[in-house]
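All the exercises in this workshop are built on plain-text protein records. Instead of coordinates, the fold is spelled out as a row of discrete tokens. Once this layout is familiar, the rest of the handout is easier to follow. The record below serves as our worked example for the rest of this section.
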Amino acid sequence: MKRALGVLAILLCAIGVYLAISTRRSEVDVESRPRSSLKERDTELEPLPELASGSLRSQQTNPDPSAAPATSATPTDSAAFDVRVIVLSRKERQPIADLAVKITWWQAEKDGPSAEATTDATGSVALRLETGGVAREHLCNVNVGAGENLRRFTALPLQSELVLLIDSCTRLHGLVVVSGAEMTEPAWVSAFEPASGMMSTHTMFARTRAQVDGSFEMQACPSREIPWVDMNIGVGTVNVTRSIAWAELSSEAGARIEIQVCELTVRVLDEAGAPLAKADVRVSRLVEDAPFPACGVSNERGEFRTSLEPADCEIIVGSAGRASAIERVVLTATDCPRIVELRLRSLRESDHLRGRVVLEDRIPVEGAIVTAIPVANSSEGAVAAHAQMRTDANGRFDLAMATDRELEVVAFRRDVGYSDEVRFTPDGRELELVIRAQGSLEVRIALPPGFSGFAQGHVEYVLVDRRFDLVDHGHEFEVPFTLSEIPAGDYNLFVYVAGWNAYAEGSVHVAAGDNRSDSPAWVELSSHPAQFARGQVLTANGSPTLGAHIEVDHPTWPPEVERLWSVKVGDGGRFEALLGVDTACSARVTLAGQPVQRVELHEGDGAILRLP
């Protein structure tokens, strides 16, 4: 009986869905109904359990947008705020005297209030910072030192006492040697702290111009101890990245950086072989941590010329009224200079991409911008072949777009928001891009208990929709931070604050509302010490492994978060994997995209992972 009732209920639901579709889309046959951007998850995510009692406090409206988390001291409306800054060496925790310290309000005008003085023998300095009408901005900037030895600590919560931990600056130097092309200008050399994973960013800590002979020298003041440096070298249109050991750059001999340059000419033609001028051309190197593509337009002869380091490359060309072209080529030092011809045919009637943009209640959205981009290895390079248009009064669009690849399509309307992205192969069906009601969310992270020292660093966040197939992730450089144009709904939120070495996670509901509101919904997460597993990945014979990735199999992270916080193995096989608050997690090791081994990671340093 129960089974029969279940079958009947399913049939009634199916009939209801059929009638609803027929009513809403009477102009489209059900068998060929459009693809929709509103895609529900196969398995709905559950809310995250609290890490600790009171670890998550959420409210839909903020009764006092100027209020700071309870753990942070906030400047009052008085005329000044007194603060003591203490500067210590990171390793020895010894005071550093005779250092210039300047403090200003975060995001204040250049001529806003500031205070500065020099540290005494105890490494401390007492400062009085005028509020100047910006007391609600409870974040500050602190500059320590001057010139090449300047260290910046950005957006620290202002308290009565700030303890800053800094490293000594080191002289890094070397020689840039270029072959394969004549360079007319000296190279720019930049030094970055290496990014450990997809969610990490490179932080530049030094930059200089090389001499005519290619030699360079810089004072490096990184915010943490690093075993190697990501060096970015720009020579004319050539931009390359090298990972070089810190010990080599700081040695007496310095580092020798060799760059091979290949000249590439992209010739853009029409069907008959005539040159096409003003076509958009982008050339991307298909390597890990590739620099931004070489970009430009074809000249009167249909040519675009650039120089780049030999590698697998992706050339993407687009021109209004014509089909795009994407070609992958392999540049080697032995076949340079290289000429590649690409032909763009005229668009046909069958090349049109049609559909409409609606709200969740199926009300059409007029004036929405619909963007279609072919799926390519380089998302930045694919912009060369994009197409855009605005919807009409009925929310409809008709894009002329031709490509033999999958497309990514999204709609945006100012003050309304974005639709979810649709990725598909065109098959003649129309698209329905649904813009969900939007809201905004202020994320507050309570200061870690007993925390007194600050280190420079950014904030990484991942926001995962528990019902629909949507993940929002990115970086911020302050706490608290506000996320805008978020589709209303229920989310799991994961945050790592590098400057505090703190981790937080929790669940939150975002309600529909004005994205520009001065009182957005807010959530406050308690922070916990972030746990890391650090070590080396070695081969069976004990040599370092390069090119491997480590993806943590975390008990509370969905697969999207595990991928975003996966880490790459760096110089000497070293790795640093975030475990959240867990002290042990299993993990997957992949090499060249293929799974190699499952391992157990434990919090702490010195782990040795041996691959078969």
In short: The longest strand covers residues 80-89.
